[in-house]
Q: What sequence folds into this?
């Protein structure tokens, strides 16, 4: 194929008006695979590559979405009045492999890395605040003692000398400054507020960018179980829900003490996602006892609750069938009975419309 230099997107509206945006295109090290060409558009002031090793590839850019997750968790903790506002996320193949929130950035990183000793290697790490000397020292020492490397590190700024020191140790590390993305809206912009992908037959498939989160919309966390959550359990329910949103459908995120203990997504059913996440936790000797488990859609039957209870889960977060399907709600009643039998907690997040009516809150992610 000939090398494209520019891409123009025009959106026409029903009233006859239109908007255009033009992207200057630069070639990437590779596309999704080495045999595919890749290009990145520059629509204006965005993130910049501070130090570049072998160049950014397609997946490197895609995995910068971990920064959105880090900011969302940090902002949610502020919203909830929690002091653990420093968040570190390490993305791997578009999913957060690990994340944690703590009062200090270095503590968030060490808490996150304690849950998985495989996946973060070669990942894309994002911090919700500027990279500190403490975090830099830790990464350098971990590289020397364990040969630990990252592909990309992104942060909204760096303390003096941090980027240069890391670049000397991790030779191919791409260090990204995301400080120009200083609002939630700039981080999750899309084209005209839309995300686009092309399916077979050159058909574009378009969806609105999901900017909804706890801190910018009216929502409720309805407790459906007899047992009510403690403040700590409710906060973990919030952070697990963010994880379910960030992980590819069908997702399951297990969280305790603001740390992602295990996760799995991209399976053809949620039961497998929960089961595989449990197996990963067992491999890394991570206990799921007392955790909150969130999934992006409703749980089908009580067998799922049986599985979660065996894994040690005490709080289940899912949208339930309410507002999502017509017909009998007996399956949800059966699930609630199972939750109550185990003295577990079940929470249904939902949005509240401008008219005060409940709106279903699902968090599927297929793009």
A:
């Amino acid at each position: 194929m000939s090398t494209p230099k520019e891409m123009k997107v025009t959106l026409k509206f029903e009233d006859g008006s239109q908007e255009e945006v033009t992207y200057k295109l630069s070639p990437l090290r590779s596309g999704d695979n080495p045999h595919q060409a890749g290009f990145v558009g520059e629509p204006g002031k965005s993130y910049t590559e501070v130090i570049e090793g072998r160049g950014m590839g397609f997946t490197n850019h895609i995995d910068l979405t971990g920064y959105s997750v880090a900011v969302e968790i940090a902002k949610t903790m502020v919203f909830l009045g929690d002091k653990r506002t420093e968040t570190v996320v390490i993305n791997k193949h578009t999913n957060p492999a690990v994340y944690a929130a703590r009062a200090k950035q270095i503590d968030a990183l060490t808490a996150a890395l304690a849950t998985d000793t495989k996946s973060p290697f070669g990942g894309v790490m994002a911090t919700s605040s500027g990279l500190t000397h403490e975090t830099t020292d830790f990464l350098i020492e971990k590289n020397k003692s364990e040969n630990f490397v990252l592909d990309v590190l992104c942060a909204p700024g760096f303390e003096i000398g941090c980027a240069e020191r890391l670049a000397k140790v991790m030779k191919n590390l791409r260090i990204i400054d995301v400080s120009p993305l200083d609002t939630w809206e700039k981080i999750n912009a899309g084209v005209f507020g839309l995300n686009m992908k092309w399916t077979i037959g050159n058909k574009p498939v378009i969806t609105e960018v999901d900017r909804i989160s706890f801190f910018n919309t009216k929502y409720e966390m309805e407790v459906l179980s007899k047992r009510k959550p403690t403040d700590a359990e409710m906060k973990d329910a919030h952070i697990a829900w963010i994880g379910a949103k960030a992980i590819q459908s069908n997702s399951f995120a297990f969280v305790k003490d603001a740390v992602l203990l295990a996760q799995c997504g991209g399976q053809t059913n949620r039961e497998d996602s929960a089961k595989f996440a449990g197996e990963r936790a067992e491999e890394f000797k991570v206990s799921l006892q007392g955790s909150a488990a969130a999934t992006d859609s409703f749980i089908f039957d009580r067998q799922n609750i049986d599985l979660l209870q065996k894994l040690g889960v005490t709080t289940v977060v899912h949208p339930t069938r309410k507002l999502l399907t017509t017909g009998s709600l007996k399956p949800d009643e059966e699930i609630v009975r199972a939750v109550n039998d185990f003295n577990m907690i079940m929470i249904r997040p939902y949005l509240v419309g401008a008219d005060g009516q409940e709106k279903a809150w699902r968090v599927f992610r297929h793009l």
About this structure: The two ends are 25 Å apart (CA to CA). The chain has two domains: 59-184, 218-360. Residues 86 and 104 are 6 Å apart (CA to CA). The first strand starts at residue 6 and ends at 12.
